[in-house]
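Thread: Newbie trying to understand structure tokens

Hi all, I'm a second-year student working on a class project, and my supervisor (Dr. K.) asked me to get a predicted structure for one chain before our next meeting. I've only ever worked with sequences, so writing a 3D structure as a token string is new to me. If someone could post the tokens and maybe explain what I'm looking at, I'd be very grateful. Here's the chain:
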Amino acid sequence: MIPQLRRYALSLTRNPDAADDIVQSTLERALRKRHLYKPGTNFEGWMFRICRNLWIDEIRKKKFDAGPMEPEMVERMMTFDGEKQMTERALLANVSAAMAKLSEDQRSVLLLVGVEGHSYAEASETLEIPVGTVMSRLARARRNLSQQLFEATENRQERGQQEDEGI
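---
Reply by user tm_fold:
Sure, no problem. This is what the structure looks like when written as tokens:
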């Protein structure tokens, strides 16, 4: 679960060090409170909820800065070589920047359902919101993310054309 928790924490904090701290706190709390876990229920959802609640607690304390993801983190996440690596880095940077512009509510739902593969019901349970709210936030998140990526592509193509024309 640690890689999934780290991805989730990183999407919340947008800071690798803060994400590591939250993951460590999540694991510690889960171990201390293991008697509260009900066997047969969604263990991943339980862990994600602990992580999210810790993050909310930290935000309330204003301990973590939820600023843009650091470029070094984007580079570390990439593992491919050559041209494919450059393409993937550019895409990841674009997606990261677009995700950073989403509201926390939309980003959380998109990560749980779109990245981690949770069902709407699991995301609903983890985030403690109705399934319908998960569905509407996910739809808005996908629409906003798509629009931002489309605009970034258009801007990049426009800059390329201007460079080709010597502008």
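A couple of things are worth pointing out once you decode it. The chain has eight helices and no strands. Residues 23 and 85 are 28 Å apart (CA to CA). Feel free to ask follow-ups in this thread.
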